[in-house]
Amino acid sequence: MTVLSRTYPQEVAGDPNSILFNPFTGAFNMVYAPTLSARGVTSIVIAASQHYPNGWCAAVEGGRITSQPGATHLTIQATGHPEQVYVSVTAGGCPSH
Fold first, then answer.
1. N or C: more exposed end of the chain, with fewer CB within 10 A?
2. In this structure, is residue 63 part of a structural domain?
């Protein structure tokens, strides 16, 4: 069911502050504060077949993407010691630079 399908964080390496998902556009946004005790990778399940038939694009501030493009799970690792990590996923391909 498309209504119940969504992109969501499966594992967060810190304390989530905000998680938003728009089922109409597929836009997903999350902000989390990395913690010393959570030295791991944040994993976000991508509902690709339901919400991103033409692909998806992820952007991260305060961390780096460690998964391959188009993977079923977006994995992120904080870089340095950011107070917060910002993650966004949008429908469609990423703009080329």
1. C
2. yes
Share of the chain above pLDDT 70, in %: 93
Does residue 51 contact residue 74 with C-beta atoms inside 8 Å? Answer: no
> Taking a C-beta distance cutoff of 8 angstroms, is the pair 42, 73 a contact?
no
The model carries a pTM of 0.89
List strands edge to edge, sheet with 42-45.
Answer: 8-11, 42-45, 73-78, 63-65
Structure tokens at 5: 């399908």
The domain containing residue 16 runs over which residues? 8-91
Query: How much of the chain is in helix, strand and coil states, percent to nearest 5?
Result: 5, 45, 50
Q: Name the residue with higher pLDDT: 39 or 55.
A: 55
Determine the pLDDT at residue 38: 67
CA distance 90 to 75: 15
pLDDT digits (tens, 9 = 90+) for 80-96: 889 999 999 999 988 87
Q: Say if 18 falls within a structural domain.
A: yes
